[in-house]
Fold:
Amino acid sequence: MPPGVHKRPFYYFHCPSCGLKSSYARPVGRGWRNPLFWCEACGKYSRQKRLWLVSSLWGVTAGLIATTIWFGPFYSLYFEEPTALRLAAPLAGLAVALAVWPIFGRLFLRYERDPDGHT
Ligand SMILES: [Zn+2]
Structure:
């Protein structure tokens, strides 16, 4: 494995060079700003396509999911129950949003080859 490569779990990866699919990615370095990804099957490098679009879309989606949870099934709890239960609503919203992330990633994360192979 090249230096700086580590595992990012729950991050769908589909290698544009060899077609490997995995439920985790192997970015080079710790940065989230247009990271370089390394394929453990063929050793080639790639970058995520439309990173900012996918990030924005995820922000909106996660926000909608969390809001739906808060004001949907937990609405009455939030306004009628004691404080301890009020904490459950945002936590449940967050938990559901995070649970949806792997599916979202599978649908929207796309990669393209990076011939240079360095950041
Ligand atoms: Zn590959």
